[in-house]
Amino acid sequence: MISKDCTTDENRVIHPRDPLVKKILALLLPHGNREIFEDVRKKLSGVWGEPERISPLIPFVWTNYYEDIAPQLDRCFFSYGGLYPTSDLPDWKLKTCEIERSTGASRRVNLDPGALDGARLLLASTKGQAHRIYMKEGIFAEVTLCRRKGKWASFFYTFPDFKSGAYDKWLETVREDWKKEHACTEKA
Prior knowledge:
- It is a single chain.
- The protein is built from four helices and nine strands.
- By secondary structure, it is α+β, with helices and mostly antiparallel strands.
- The protein has one domain: Alpha-Beta Plaits, CATH 3.30.70.
- Strand 8 and strand 9 form a beta hairpin.
- It is globular.
- The protein starts with 19 loop residues before the first strand and ends with a helix.
- 31% of the residues are buried.
């Protein structure tokens, strides 16, 4: 990780062409269930530290794909301070899969880690599709949104909730965080 004060992780060599990104996490959880929210937040904090930003809870109304979790869901996002190599994204997904499994015999949440920079939002997945690129250890990545003409733009395959624009304001705030931290690393 490149920290906010522009220091690097001394134990690791980061390839100079590995883009540095903000780590984000998209969380789906049962509507109104603060207990699960706090449990997952605590587990995530144990792995990655306290989040830099947490979005408001947003009612998830775009699909019933996640009915196995609960009939009504909320979406929430976390972002973490510092910049990270994009190549870490598969490791983040593997860790979130562990956390999902730790919530019960049947999953109680859906966790999708992502990487955000000035041009795109990447999300990691365990499911391969034509538009997803294999990273490693059963983990794929896709460009879910990109920046075009000053705003977030979707693709034909973008999930309906991301396509809706409901998250754009929060993503833009995190993008501004990335811009500030990225400018700091370029000066170093």
